[in-house]
Amino acid sequence: MKTGKAVTELAERNRQTMNKKYIQQLAKSFAVIPILASTLTANPLQIINDRVVTMSIQASDQQFLRALDEQAKARKDKADQIDAYFSEYDMPLEGYGMKMVIEAEKNNIDWRLIPAISVRESTGGKHACKKVKNSPFGWGSCKIPFTSMDEAIEKLALNLGGNNPNTAYHYDNKTTEEILKAYNPPSIVPKYTKQVLAIMSDISNDDSIAIKNS
Q1: Residue 155 exposure: Cα atoms within 13 Å on the Cβ side
Q2: End-to-end Cα distance, the chain
Q3: In this structure, what are the phi and psi dihedrals at residue 3, rounded to the nearest 5 degrees?
Q4: pLDDT per residue over 27-85, tens digit each?
Q5: What's the pTM value of the predicted model, to 2 decimals?
Q6: How far apart are CA 95 and CA 19, in angstroms?
Q7: By the 8 A CB rule, do 172 and 214 touch?
Q8: What are phi and psi of 96, to 5 degrees?
């Protein structure tokens, strides 16, 4: 049987042991805190950075989409003006407005040029060349056929834009007026250029791209 003194000493040793363990555990916990703190401070910043980048990309995408939307609206407006003109005079080429606008954009020519030529040459398809198919533009003096009206528009735009190597010396880097003079020289049809330009103005008064950029 332990004496009172022995019991007291045992209790003191247990207390000291418990205090030592508590201090060790507390020290371990403090050692972990900086790690947690660094994790907590790094992750939110990384998350914020990621979100900023994501938001920037989203904003850029939205601007790009808005620009595309505006281009599509402008293109449709031009096509509608062409088709409205054809419709007003009951011309067969009604419905090809969008094709004419797209091909004009591809070849950097005035979007009214092709429809205006068709009006001057064949009253918008009413009096297209009879010797060959799908030729309402008088291209090749009515000696060159096309498989479709789409192809005829594509080939005419390609040539007038100076993008056909065989005819580029006639049309490359020319203003609309110069293109028309090369297409049908004043020596052959004196009023041709003025007539086509007048039709272009009737289709629309848009002069923003009337002159081809060199």
Answers
A1: 17
A2: 114
A3: -80, 170
A4: 555 444 454 444 445 566 677 677 766 777 777 777 777 888 899 999 999 999 999 99
A5: 0.69
A6: 93
A7: no
A8: -100, 10
CA pair distance 90, 95, nearest whole angstrom: 11
pLDDT beneath 70: ranges in the chain: 1-45, 48, 52-53, 206-214
Which among 140, 78, 142 has a CA at the least distance from the CA of 109?
78
Give the pLDDT score at 149: 98
CA angle, 138 as apex, 126 and 149 as ends, to 5°? 65
Residue 105: how many other CB atoms lie within 10 Å? 16
- Residue 77's φ and ψ, nearest 5 degrees, are -65, -40
- Residue 181 tokens read as 């003079």
In one-letter notation, the amino acid at residue 11 is A
Residue among 87, 71, 82, 77 at smallest CA distance from 114: 82
